[in-house]
Design brief:
Layout: H1 4-14, E1 20-25, E2 28-35, E3 38-44, E4 49-51, H2 55-61, E5 67-70, E6 74-77, H3 81-86, H4 91-94, E7 102-107, E8 113-119, E9 124-127, H5 134-145, E10 149-154, E11 160-167, E12 170-175
Parallel strand pairs: 6-7, 8-10
Antiparallel strand pairs: 1-2, 2-3, 3-12, 4-5, 5-6, 7-8, 8-9, 10-11, 11-12
C-alpha cells in the first residue's frame, strides 16, 4: 500500500534527490512524482456504476444524496457544498453501507468540487485528504462539468487541496503533504 504520506516521507528522508518513485501495489504500479512542491500520483480511474439512493444512505449521513454510485467505494453526490461540509454522519450506520468506504461530494464555490471520505470498515472514521477517492470524484465531475482538470477540496476538519486530471482510464492526483511527526525506533 502507498499513499501520499508514505511517498512524502521517502522523498524527504530516504531519497531527497529523487524526483519520481514507483510503488508496486495490489492494483498495479503507482507512480509518484514531485512537481513544484506537489506530490503527483497516477491512479487507475474507478469504474463506478449507478446504484439506487436508499433510506439507509440518508439515515447514515443525515441528508439524502441526489445520486449514488458504487465501485470499491460508494460515491454519494449532493447539490450543496455546505451540506457536505456540515455533515455529521453516524459512523456505525456508514459501516453498513455498500462498499469499503463512503465518499461524499458536491459542487464547490471556490473549487470545482468538495468531498469528504469515511471508511469505518478500514478503521478510519474520516480520512483528512484521500487521493484515491478522487479516482471516482474527479471522473464524475470531469464528465459533469465537461473538463478534464478538476480543482478539488477535501472538506475534512484538516482539509486539503487536490489538483486532478482525468486522462481516459487514469487519474492524476496532485496534493501537498505536511510533516506532523518524527520518531526514532530502536529494535
Amino acid at each position: 500500500m502507498c499513499d501520499g504520506g508514505m511517498a512524502y516521507a521517502l522523498f524527504r528522508f530516504h531519497e531527497p534527490e529523487a524526483e519520481e518513485m514507483t510503488f508496486r501495489t495490489m492494483s498495479g504500479e503507482l507512480h509518484v512524482a514531485r512537481r513544484d512542491g506537489w506530490l503527483v500520483m497516477d491512479f487507475p480511474a474507478y469504474r463506478v456504476e449507478p446504484v439506487p439512493v436508499t433510506d439507509e444512505m440518508e439515515a447514515a449521513l443525515g441528508a439524502r444524496p441526489l445520486e449514488a454510485y458504487l465501485d470499491r467505494d460508494l460515491l454519494l453526490v449532493y447539490d450543496d457544498e455546505d451540506v457536505v461540509r456540515r455533515m455529521r454522519p453516524n459512523i456505525a450506520l456508514v459501516a453498513g453501507l455498500p462498499g469499503m468506504a463512503a465518499c461524499l461530494t458536491a459542487p464547490g464555490g471556490d473549487f470545482g468540487c468538495v468531498s469528504r471520505f469515511f471508511a469505518p470498515d478500514m478503521g478510519i472514521e474520516e480520512d483528512p485528504v484521500t487521493g484515491s477517492a478522487h479516482c471516482m470524484v474527479a471522473p464524475y465531475w470531469a464528465a459533469r462539468l465537461g473538463k478534464d482538470e478538476i480543482h478539488a477540496w477535501q472538506a475534512s476538519e484538516r482539509g486539503g487541496e487536490l489538483l486532478c486530471e482525468v486522462r481516459g482510464d487514469r487519474v492524476s492526483v496532485a496534493g501537498k503533504a505536511a510533516l506532523y511527526s518524527v520518531c526514532e525506533l530502536q529494535v
